[in-house]
Give the backbone structure.
Amino acid sequence: MKTYKAAIFDLDGTLTDTLADLHESVNEMLAHYNFPLRTLDEVRQFVGNGARKLMVRSLPADKENFVDEALKYYDGCYARNCLKKIKPYEGIMELLTTLEAKKIPLGICTNKQHFAAIEIADKVLAPIKFSYVSGDEPGLPRKPNPTRALAGAKSFGVAPEDVAYFGDTAVDIQTAINAGFLAIGVTWGFRPRSELVESGAEIIIDHPLEIFDKISFGGK
């Protein structure tokens, strides 16, 4: 059984259940402009590629030129709503606490807005200390481009092949593969198991603590 030296996580649908807050924020934006609202399941399918792509998918099909204005308004909505109903998934805090006790460097690499990623890490996932948190910022590539994920591994001083990456979507699995990480798919998030299988996940788990039956973690 290979031993991994660091763990990097997606955020939405992997560490935290953020769907209700995302849905509320999308519909607050749509209502502001008198556009048709979206269902919870629609928003579940729309997330994963960053807030801008979420706007593209949420807006009416004939409003492609409205994305920048919608995104600006949505960012304000989500800043107000992002901590309302969010919660870590069952078993996540136990997983993170166990890894922290093993002195495993922990990181977050998400396509969520960077300000929200920092706030959630600090307020929802406390007292866990993440050594690296990277969200969507201007001028930096979004996943599945591996640049930001690899920057996390470099900051840990850990080779890519020694990093386990956890995510719930094809974007996450592609990111892990592109970075040379172990690609771990989680089934409790926003996408079905079939998407994880088809995208090439090397390990798929149904509960966070199952990972310890699949691989081991140890320090550098």
Observations:
- DSSP finds ten helices and ten strands in the chain.
- Residues 19-81 form a domain with the DNA polymerase; domain 1 fold (CATH 1.10.150).
